[in-house]
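Field reference: sequence -> structure
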Amino acid sequence: MNFYDKKFRKIVSGVILVIIVAMLATSVLPYIM
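Structure field:
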């Protein structure tokens, strides 16, 4: 597996971004509701 493949790095960064957004959403939503 090539870890320096641009497509692979893009997918990994996208997954990390989604996880961070999900964590922020779950911590912020109770205050909004």
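Note: The radius of gyration is 14 Å.
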